[in-house]
Amino acid sequence: MISCEKAAIICNKKQYNEATFYEKLQLIFHLLICKTCAKFSKENAKLTSLCKKAPLCCLPEKEKVEMKKELQEKI
Amino acid sequence: MAEHQLHPETWVDQYADYLFNYAVARISDAEIAKDLVQETFFAGLKSAANYKGTAAERTWLIAILKRKVIDHYRKINSNKGKAEVRMNYSSHTDADGDWLEEQIADPLSTHENSSIENEELGLAIQECISKLPKKQSLVFKMKTIQGMETEDICKELGINPSNLWVMIHRARTALMDCLNKNWF
């Protein structure tokens, strides 16, 4: 049986489709017996769907550095 | 005594994404939106002396950005004709009965609210992300918003994968907490 920490990591990987088949199997069995992780897993999936639904975009780090530099010059 | 103070050196880290999201939702051109955010920071710096400290830093910056967005539309619409509002009753007159009744919005539909709601959701998420520790928010953004591969992020930041997943885990837990408080 896997620990809750490990289950949480797998659950997070699953949100990005990076969990292997074996890991997913382990997770399913863990969720069957652990209510806390089951709740976490549910909320985690909700967060993923919210992030997909919202038009999220952000500036690339490179442009931020440039922006910071220009701003720094004016301070 | 002012309640709030300006810290221009933290602006880019704290507000750049938030302002950018706000601008992109209204301009829908990333390049122009980026320029407007940059201009907002400059304008904020220039008029920092006028900042009375009654509003939070972010509210104040958003107010400046709002003006910048309006100015932008004014500029591209400077020809009088372009600014004119033209109304057609119906764009396709041979459509089945062009009654005006058919063209008003369906009062029961919630569809047109969803894009507004989604934009607010985006800003709420962005606000929560900005409260995370710098490294966590960076990893979370790279992974979730930019959709980068785990391997690439690890290489760029010089961390190992298990390190990355721990950071993602902390970021996600904090975000869930924050959204539960502010969104639901």
UniProtKB/TrEMBL annotation, chain A:
Organism domain of life: Bacteria
Record's protein name: Glycine dehydrogenase
Organism, as annotated: Maribacter arenosus
Automatic annotation (TrEMBL), chain B:
The keyword DNA-binding is assigned to this record: yes
Keywords (A to Z) from UniProt: DNA-binding, Sigma factor, Transcription, Transcription regulation
Gene3D superfamilies named in the record: 1.10.1740.10, Winged helix-like DNA-binding domain superfamily/Winged helix DNA-binding domain (1.10.10.10)
InterPro entries: RNA_pol_sigma-70-like, RNA_pol_sigma-70_dom, RNA_pol_sigma70_r2, RNA_pol_sigma70_r4_t2, RNA_pol_sigma_r2, RNA_pol_sigma_r3/r4-like, WH-like_DNA-bd_sf
Domain RNA polymerase sigma factor 70 region 4 type: from-to ranges: 124-175
One Pfam family cited in the UniProt record for this chain: Sigma70_r2
Domain RNA polymerase sigma-70 region: start-end pairs: 12-75
Family: Belongs to the sigma-70 factor family. ECF subfamily.
Name of the protein in its database record: Sigma-70 family RNA polymerase sigma factor
Natural source organism: Maribacter arenosus
